[in-house]
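Sigma-54-dependent Fis family transcriptional regulator
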Amino acid sequence: MLLIVDDDIAVRTSLTLLLKKEEFAVKGVMSPEETMEILQTETPELILLDLNFSIETSGKEGMQLLQRIKKACPAVPVILITGWGTIDLAVKGMKEGAIDFITKPWQNDYLLQSIRTILNLAQQVPRSASRRKLEQQYHFENIVGQDPKLLDILETVGRVAPTDAAVLITGESGTGKELIAEAIHLNSKRKLRPFVKVNLGGISSTLFESELFGHVRGAFTDAKTDRIGRFEMANKGSVFLDEIGELDLSSQVKLLRVLQERTFEPLGSSKSRTVDVRVICATNRNLEEMVALGTFREDLYYRINLITVKLPALRERPDDIPLLSAFFVNNLKIIYQRPDLHLSAAAMKWLKTLQLQGNIRQLKNLVERTVLLSGKDELDIADFQKNLNAGPQMAAHRNLPEVGTITLEEMEFQMITKAMQFHQNKVSKVARSLGITRFALYRRLEKYGIAYDSEEA
């Protein structure tokens, strides 16, 4: 049974008709007193709670009722109903234990989607599973490892993938956040629809709306044709918003509105378009700290993290390092046509001892560099040691300019320019070669006015 708590008879009637049409059992009440009477005899599967009652417009009475509900039935999920102007109140409700919030006027499809997602998650019981069992049930072909921490994550991914729950993936750079996002999509009901990746760290605030929501011809000087934005590309599928912690506050407001209302207007257009997407976000930053500092909106934070998946650093699962190394070598066998290529047993053990601050990405680069520079079929410890220290050794032999003849900024500009030319403007490769993150490179490219391919970003 779903319980609707709202003093407005029109709202109760509208929600009751909608939910009964979808074959939910529904009850409606108009006051806190009636709510608590029902909870004494019945336990609803879910409660839809309006925060404002006719005698109180500040939400105080609704918040007090939420506290009473969570005390009486702590396991029952509560969805708050609020107006756009009182989202701050809904955020307070999330802190008090509500699981989601919708704004008036709501979209029926989005409300039903939210209800089904929450009910599905509530019914699923976590279970301990082996890698073999997970492989039999889900598609995790591109994710390598058997560490218990990773298996717990994959089990969570398997449970949440069939729902439309918003997922926030956190973890250090290079831990495989994009692979987890892809796994969520591939194991979802949207797997045959588009999976659109957006690197928010590579999109400047001036291009944010155009990139995500598209633009119409003439919207700005260079808008010679209409352009479809990433959200519209992902319609009926999933959109992966990587590096969401890099968004500035004005862009956060625009994103929140789209996530909340599921509608947007392309830049330069006054016509709203509706979009149905599953949102998956990722960041290597601490969003809770950013919320406390006021650099990330609290309402957006609660909107994107119904489920949070925290990826461990590679040094926290050292037993997976040999498995990953062998996986990379097997791929490189095919790419470079070296069928006898393999790792020695000693090298496998030695690789486990590396701290690898760059995580899986650093390990992959180390293995590939060693394969390229070694002429042997068996890769041993010495081969990896040589390439692990290649960066510092090469730096020591470079001809550096005399002190005072060039500024640090000029040197940085020259190095980035040379790297862009060498790697043919491939941003990911340039960032790796310079030892910085893609986001850090994007900021420097904008700082120095160096052109780059936004599509590659």
